[in-house]
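User: Assemble these into one structure.

Assistant: Restating your components, then the assembled model:
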Amino acid sequence: MRFALAWLPALAGLVAGCSLLNAPDRNLIPPDGGVDGGGIELFCDDGLDDDDDMATDCEDADCSQEPACCEERRTTLAEDWTAPDLSGGWMFAPTAEPPWTPARPLFDGTTFLGGFLPDDSPRALVSNDCVSLGLGGWVDASLRSTDATGCTQSDLCDRYAGVVLSVATDSSPGNKLQDEIAVTLHAGGLVLVTQADEEIARTAAPIDRTIDVAIELRPTLDDMNLPILRATVTVDTELILEDFTVAPISDLVATADCAEVPGLHVAAQGQGDGVYVGPVTTAKQDCANPGQFDEQSAILRSVNLDLTPGWVEAYVGAPGLASSRNSLSDVQWDLIIEGSNFGPELEPTVHIGYALGHARTSSDEGDDWRLDTWDGSGGPKIGDDPPACLDGTCDDNRSVREPHLLAELNEDRELRDLVLAFARELVTVPSERDLFGIQVVRPVGSPATAIGLPIAPTLSPDDIPECVSLRDPALIPVDPDAQEGYWLLFTCITGPGPSMEIHAVRISRSLEVVQEGGAPLRRIVLVASELGPFAAAGIRAPEPVIAFQEDGMRLRIWFLAQREPGEWGVALAEARTHDTGMLRFELPEPVPFPVNPILSRASTLVQSGCFDEVCNITGIAVTPRGDDPTRLRFLLARRLNLPGQGLIDQLIPLEQTWRMP
Amino acid sequence: MGLALAAALACIPVGCGDATGVGGTSGENANDFGGAGGSGGAAGVEGVGGQGGTGAPTTADGFGGIGSNPVDELFADPGRSGADPASPEIYESDAAACYETPQSCGAPGCAVFASCCVRTGVCCLPIVDELGLPSALDYQQCAGLELAACSTGDATAAAFGLAEPVISDRGLVPNGNAVVEGGALIGAPINLSSLRVELRVQFTLPVGCGSTCLQSAGVAFTATAPDAFVDADVGLLLSGSRGEVSLMIGNAVAASFDAGTDSTQWRLVLSPEGTAEVFRDEVSQGAYSFDAAGLPQAQLVVFCRKLGAISSSAAVANIDVQTSLCDNPSAWQDRAPFSVTFQGGDVPGHASGRAPSVVDQGATRRVAYEVDGEIFVAAEAAPGALVLESLVPALVPTEPFETNGVGDPELVVDGTSLLMFYTARSDTGAGSIGLATSDQDPPMFTKDLQPVVEPGGDVTSYDAPTVFRRDGLWVLIARGTLTDGATELHAFYTNDLGTPWTRIFDGGLEHLTRTDGPGNELTGPSLIVHNSAYHLYYARRTGTRWAIELAVSDELLLWRPLGQVLAGSGAGFDSLGARSPDAISGPDRVDLVYAGQNGVAFDLGQATRSAPSETALFDF
């Protein structure tokens, strides 16, 4: 699946040097990097042939999985009006009046709905179910007028029928449904597209002939980076409305059937007799939904990981996860987490130290892992035990945290090497705390293999003048075998308060920082202020997955983002290019998904079982499954307050399938 | 909230004056006017000429008009010594600079504009007592006393945590531990979305605290009851091991500063616009954003934890809290729907009446609204309860210029008379502004036989009037529909209702309010004067959602748009939006009636907010 680069029509301006987002001064390869041929259609709705292959935007196969171009449909509602009792799936509006009795005549062998009587009020059947449209979708319906008496093709008529998309499930007597968008056939043949009952577009249709109405909805970002839904309306193959802004996606229904993907209710509405609504079908895009996860059953806690209880007594989180095949063709899972004997809530009061633990398990192909088969490091694999103390005895303590694991695999997807990156505290005087650098180490060994801290970090804040501390490392190999090394992502801490930027530094296969002009070869990857409101209060903890393909590569970066302080959610950005060779020198610019965050603090996954406000996302790990690289396994770390148990941490396994076009 | 407001504005920053003499203007008019009910507009057709349509505004970029209108007459508060309009270019450039950004109006030079009192954290009115927050509470002076015995005024204290806080010569030691925080809730919750708060704190640093000692003390506002941890939504926290005082926002560290010594004075200034500024020994350490709107019930809490002896613990030596009331136009409270009854029974359809207008006649508050092209007037028997004295409409179409109905009522008190301006829709669909008058109680209206404002020229229709009156000046703003289908608000004035209304030209109103696309709409203006400035509320539709916006002006020409001030609440009768605002100004408050949008209907409702009404009488 590809989607990222079509999300931002505003980015089309980048080609002309007028970026509204992701300012070009970050010195990454601009998103038009493939224009010279052999590249990729980077923007799928900018009207340009970015990769010079004679196929523009959605004509280019590069875009086939983008929300802007996706044509794969999954039907969400199909109504032919033949059921004896329609009340099972539909509400009769207005509900303040007795249910009306629809007429259901046959035209050309097809059942239509009409008889919106008595004609003193608009009447409608409104779908009980919300139809998910927030990630794109289609609404198809047919309309027919059989009696134009007293009405013309150019005037409104008091007899009409049409299809309505609405956040509401009811109307008040005498009034129409609130229409986010509606297509209505008036008895004389006038077809109106409306919003808030105001005319948006019109056309004329013949009488006594069925006309087909198609509403196509696609998400995009507006010029303020707010996700919106746009509509295109076709009547009998005539395009009468294009790219009309229906609503901000945040205004759509986001409950019940639409809890995962926001949507609207669909309705057949009319007034009077002689105008009818035929079969109605709705479908959602079946290409991209990074906000939808397959929940796995085995939720992990520290007790499942074969870790000595004492040092993880108060907290575990920030997982790093890797997956590979082992010699038995099982799937091997390596998990490294940070933990401490005191909770992170004490951080504003006192320095808390952390250590890293390692656990490993195997599962059968395609299966989930079990809770009771993890082989853990017992004590910390890296760091001190206990990691923290509050009695003054830990002055020399060093904190290590936020591990990231990169599994390097051979052709059989067996583990060739594990590379571990983590943040390590750099304390030069006992009173100095919370200054971190980045350590990258190889090999990692078995869980029981302790790793000592090298004398010097791989990357120090001294190397990056803009950052007083470096956190949340993550590795991106620059070629399939990482022979040329990696890009090392990290959160740049500029001072107290939330972090706002994620940077990357190039390191070699031998884990040395690559220099450029006397300083580390560095790029700024994500900037909170350029991403949109969902990241207004900060970003951190990048988690990249890169996929090398025959014709290029795609880089997806999940990261934590907060709209308000404390409201961390999981967001996604993506970059891609055909020119994989350039990765040795540059990173393509990731562009945010239009419906971020893909997982918010308010989502069921985070709030389920939470009995208190203290129920937060504390980290996320992502890795392709060793047995199926199109399946991504996520490990969502959350911290919640359970009655009688206090604050506890859970690691929730999730999965997604990412297909290629 | 029962506020005891400082009498006679004793502490307006530039000094004190004769508030009685000047304040009469604002106070006198508080009950004399109401805004217009909003409505959807009638489609325009050819106009019939008249005052309103002659000529078109020549506004450019929203500024101008000072030299081409009688500004001295138009000032919202002629008694205020504001900017000098004698030099129009200077006046206009000064206003442009002050209104350029939301923040620029807070600059000292902008004090000449009363409009700058709104949403800037200036012109705030000190509040004395009654909030139960301590002024000058010195815990060190209370050494040895119980928590409850150490208080000032009405400030109450309620302890929480496993161990009672201890007051020693170090101050208040909240007495939490590594697992559970301890401390005390101080005073009653306050609304940080409408109050400016100055919190002065002096901490006592712990003794012998190494880099990993657990010693802290904090003072913060929280929206939730303390549990094992206090959610410090905004406040200051001393960390002994770090040797820092941190600004906590959203229960996370937003910034940290060297803790200094026991004598270091900390001051945290919280503005209702959502800015927290930290001062260390009166030197600003920076300003940071916080969610003031999300803290309408913020509880002051002294909290934290320690491991070790009381004698060496971190403590709060003293605190001092000063609050003042500011004009935050988004800080609406008590949003609730109206009921409409007649002889004890609900009147079908009337709770969904359109375009409400409210007027305060002293003993009675009345609300007019439109139902099916007719206008009804109800009395507010109790908050939220409208009672019809008759099912007979107060106004029905009778004249040729109102064949298609009457609507958008606008009630105005003029002495002993109750005036109703309204939209009259002709058989062509064109709207004009009519006037009816009542000298009776309950009101019985008599119509003028001709509209008072009619469309003409490039204006095809006028509707949705709002009228403001003060001695010697009537101001009317209505929505005009132009020949090209666009709409904009037009302002008129007259000194005598018996004379024609004169259009105000070249101002910024048309530019500010023009809409011309199907995806949006602007209507329902409501004009009041509050705190010496014109406040113009209006409703804007974006897509299907309505929201109420506000623009302010000193003289009706140069406008400072403030954007959305009331939108969907997420629940109840106004879950999705709000339109048809009608405001009335009262002493230190603004009341609003409006139509709440819930996706099914638009229902009548009301809201109120606190806002000082007499703090901008002078250059602040």
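Residues 88-99 of chain B form the longest helix (12 residues).
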